Amino acid sequence: MQRQALENNEILSSTTDKHSPIIRLLANFFSYAFHPIFIPLYVTWMLAFIHPTYFIGFSSMSKNKIFLLVAINAFAFPMIAVLLLKGLGFIDSIFLKTQKDRIIPYIASMTFFFWTQYVLREQSFVPRILVAFMFGVFISSSAALIANIYYKISMHAIGVGGMVGLFLVIMQQNTMLMTGPLTFALLITGIVCTSRMIVSDHRPKEIYAGLVVGLFCQFIGAAINL
Which of 7, 16, 145, 211 stands the most exposed, by the fewest C-beta atoms within 10 Å? Predict the structure, then answer.
């Protein structure tokens, strides 16, 4: 593992040295703006407030309550867990730069993601597409934990891959014209993955693996829940 860390540091130094400060600044911006912890929020907002039929008949208050439920369980709790782990000295950095640092946060996040999809599933009025998405997020985090044993799979790639996977599921259901949203999702996926190549120590295979995991876990979630 020490040898791999040295190789990753060499990759990071070689990639960052050949890019201008502006390019690295933009790469960092997109890495933060589309951090995987934000993806459930973006997707829930899109399903609740943009999609024309999934939440039809819901009041604004009902939509906000569901969004808040996802925000607390799939965003706030994982963030608090990471901050507590850093404060207690269980991880070296909140940015989870090493495979060792990612183990406990993965387990904590899996727990919160599972709880989120369970609570949504138990509410019969919640559209199944949101349940399927959160179940896909849960199994993708589980797959990432297993992959983390062997290499540092890209969490950013898993996140944007999951977003693309969900949009493909929606397109297959033919409930909304997805040309624009899917094009946007693919564009963001390309930008985010390129950004991670620029400012992180990920190797290409770790990013490609993340995309595949995020994409196919959403297909599995849809197959089970829809």
Answer: 7
